[in-house]
Amino acid sequence: MASERESEEISVPLPSSEDASLQATWGLGNQLFVYAADRRPAKDTNGEGSDMGHTQSYDILDLRWGQDMHGPTTRKLINESHSVFVMLQGQVTSLSGSALYNQLKEASRQYRSIAKACSLELQLLMSNTVDEGEREYYGNQVELLETMQIIWSLCEILFIDIAPGEMVLVQLLNWVRWHFSAGREMAQDVINDEIPEEHPAYWEAIFRLLLQGEIERVRKLLSLHSCSQTQPFTSVEELLKKMPQWGNLRTVSLAEFDLKWRHWREECMRRYEEGHFTAFAELERVVQVLCGDMLVFSELKDYCETWYHLLISRLLYQNPTVRPTDLAFHVQACMEEFQRAGHRMGHVDNILQAALEFDLHQVIKDSSTSLGDRSWWFGAHLTDILHHCGQIDSQKLPFGSNLREYLLLEYVAGLMSHHSLWQVGVDYLDHCPVFGKEHMKLYIENLPLDSERKANKLIHICEERDLLEQVQSICKIMGVRCSQDGRLGSALSWFLRSKDVPAATRLTEKFLQDYKENGNFSHLDLLDHMGPTMLLTQQLTFLGKYREFHRMYQEKDLKGAASLLLSMLTARAAPRHFWVTLLMDALPLLETPQVILGTSQTYELMHCLEELTQDLTRNTPTSTTPSRASSTPTPQSAGTGVTAAGSSQILSQRDLEKLKLLRLALCRNLSRSIVHEGTIVPL
Amino acid sequence: MEQPRINVKFVSQKINKIRWRPRLKQSMQQSDTFVTGSWDDEENKVCLWRQQPLLDDGSRNGMEEELLLREPELLCEARHPGDVSDLCFLTQDHIATASSTGSVLLYKHHTITQRVEAVQEWPDLHISGGRRCPCTCLATYGEDTMLSGGEDGRIAMLSPGQAAPVRVLEKADSCTINALAFLKQSEVLTVNSFGQLKLFDFRQNTDGPAQIFSATDDHWSLLCVDKHPGQLHVVATGSQDGTLTVWDLRQNRFPMTTLDAHQSSMWEVRFHPYHAEHLFTCSEDGSLWHWDASAHASLVASSGRPGGDEGPSGQQSPWLGLEASPKLEINSLICNKSLSVNSLDIEGGLLLCGTDSENIYTLSMPHLS
């Protein structure tokens, strides 16, 4: 299909040389980033890296196409039809039989009326603008929309809203009446004239209406003629009155109707041959039409404007009970009628011909390639209905899905290239069973995350569709961005949301680092209210507990604070690099007038201190170039899960001084507690 | 219950916020002008609309057709840098907007020439690590005080005519502030993305909140807040998981009632300004709900009438202790499933909402006018 599409050549303002080749990367939807890349093989280039890295500093071009459908009026078309589409898909799953069939007919009419509304609005815009270019643009858009409606209505008559009893002509007449209104407008002018019969368009109006089977209106116009009471006029009036109308004869069968009609036509012919009307040439022509005279239709073809109007008009007077499948036999003659007059057959003619020949695939194929930028809208929605009507065989196309899905995906690509219609696109992808989900994943990964609000909306979309990996990735992007900007609180809330343990762990490190540098906690509103969420990672639990320790200390619950501190150390919950800080936090607790830490607790602390010092001495590099890799975790730390990276630090001189001080304080506290507890009674 | 009459207008822009112009003080006249702000477009807009009244007073023939709502008509529009994340009428013709570019703008609506134009901008109010952070919410008090909150967790107090912020609370929040509401001139409520409701007291000199309330242990982000028009201790918030929480700020231990509501993010919650026993919520799932506690209210003997401040201690609100009450009626107002309903506002008997399906719904609820 794609190969048959009209191609357009664009020259790209990029330097071309033997060394540079044109490269491209897909953007979102109908968007391509084009740049010149070095052709010479770089030594470390393999297939996937070749479009990156070794480009010279050429420009990158942002090419987009199919953006014409992004105008404000088209957006109404898109959004309105979106709601019809979504509702219809629901009905397809919930209804069946005639209930579903009625909904499909209804949806088809709704799509058409949406297109009509859109076209009317464009006409209004066209009449309000003075800009010549704009006027032309709107004019083209209106024409395109009208064309779509002509094709759609015909397809609706032939494939969707199929008339019972195969009397297709009544609907086809309505179709030409709806799309060719010149006759009615002329008639209105004529009626408003003081002397109608002298209006230059008097007879033209009559013929146009006659060709559309508007018998009542024709009779009305004829009755305005000054000679309307003369015999020829009353004769025609009688014939017109007698003309069998299918609408009034619903109860009869097709065969009965045919019989009645043949009788009536014989009478027309008889009167014509008797020469009742020779006094009035125009009146005679009217009767010729009634008789279905071949020649007169050729003469009047300009009043039909198009071959398909002529087709319907001819059938009306020559073969009103034509079966839908026989329509095709009459197409060629009518087309030739116009071709002889120098008309060239265009896309629309071919599409309508294909429809009348019941070649649906050709209709959709040609519509998709030739109806401009809205063709995907047209193709996707029409094909969807036809598919559900069972008119299109749902065979797989060579690329793995059926025609309906292929067209929906093309339509979605257009939506996704728009800045803000991606939400609509997502709903369409839901109804593409084969590739929908994969396409959705790719689109979602490429949507820019401008604000938390947008991120939340995207997450909602993903969660509804079980795209958990994408949720993780969105949370991670948002969290990392917050963290880079120094908004650690927000970052944490994103990682907690996606339960992202590694990211939360790294972030907790930042919090601890922050504390070590500033000596106090920020983000208290967060840390103090984490609740059970802190259990997500060991690090975070430690952070929460450590903050609790500070609060207890501030609230003068020294005993509680001391035992919490000790439990953090003995449970090895703290990262090793934080031990110095933790141990130093014990210092004030050792210096209080009351003894807070008992002997066993003091022993524990001494043990921890010793463990840390040994650890550090073992790891302190003897060479002059300390390297991260040289540090190995101690057996204990490896066993208890304390991160290895934490123990690689090297203590500053100041820290060492502090630890000495701590050792002293521990000793003093030990002796005080021994006395206090009376565990060793002096002899 | 009578179904409201609905008009749907497609406007070719995703509506993020919609607000009625407040009616003039002491006026009984239903406001007929509203403003919308779009989002996520290449060029976003602030638009003013007029909603024709429901009925021509002269032609009340009892004809069904005449009761049809007319379409809102566009009065004027102006470009807006970035998404319009929030909108407030500061005065009858001044509109403040919050932008996703981190700035706050003030627009003036010239009612005679029907033009709207930006008259003041406070650029880069919300910035973090050198990067612009979306300004997410606005609140006004009187005609000269505005507050903005942002994803950077800052609150800025602005005064029209003054280029610099009057005051900035640098560390008001560790997370994103999603919505603001004035409780009194000196007290402001905020909700954040960590599921907290905070009370700030501007008489204090600290940046921190006077009180923090947590909604749930799951820390679902709170997205919107509205205070009861009459009872200052009653506050409603909506959360990311779609639940509605009604808070009693007088209680410290168990301050809230949580009601399961929408299937996804609740973007906005509003008490009816004159009939506070009616509440409206809208959600990402495309629904718009009407919560009617009037049956419950008549049960609660001395229900607070609008306008009364915190009355005698025995006073009860129908919104507190709702879990136990079967008397709460909930109606879904939009039948057609659409994309997210982002914003709603009610003034008298007319309810507006704006959606991501690029349409504006006008619903008439005459019994609430």
TrEMBL record, chain A:
UniProt source species: Littorina saxatilis
InterPro entries listed in its UniProt record: Nucleoporin_Nup85 (IPR011502)
Localization in the cell: Nucleus, Nuclear pore complex
Description of how the protein assembles with itself and partners: Component of the nuclear pore complex (NPC).
GO biological process: mRNA export from nucleus; positive regulation of DNA-templated transcription; protein import into nucleus
Keyword set, alphabetical order: Membrane, mRNA transport, Nuclear pore complex, Nucleus, Protein transport, Translocation, Transport
Principal place of residence: nucleus
GO CC list: nuclear membrane; nuclear pore outer ring
Family from the record: Belongs to the nucleoporin Nup85 family.
Superkingdom: Eukaryota
Biased composition (Low complexity): 617-635
Keyword Transport applies: yes
Biased composition (Polar residues): 636-646
Any GO MF annotation of the entry: structural constituent of nuclear pore
Protein known as: Nuclear pore complex protein Nup85
Role description: Functions as a component of the nuclear pore complex (NPC).
One Pfam match: Nucleopor_Nup85
Region of interest (Disordered), residue spans: 617-646
TrEMBL record, chain B:
Cross-referenced InterPro entries: WD40/YVTN_repeat-like_dom_sf, WD40_repeat_dom_sf, WD40_rpt
Keywords assigned by UniProt, alphabetized: Nucleus, Repeat, WD repeat
The UniProt record lists the keyword Nucleus: yes
Pfam family, one: WD40
Highest taxon in the source lineage: Eukaryota
Sequence ranges of the WD repeats: 235-257, 259-301
Location relative to the cell: Nucleus
PROSITE patterns reported for this sequence: WD_REPEATS_2 (PS50082)
GO cellular component, one term: nuclear pore outer ring
Region of interest called Disordered, as start-end residue ranges on this chain: 300-320
PANTHER family associated with the record: NUCLEOPORIN NUP43
Protein name: Nucleoporin 43
Protein's organism: Littorina saxatilis
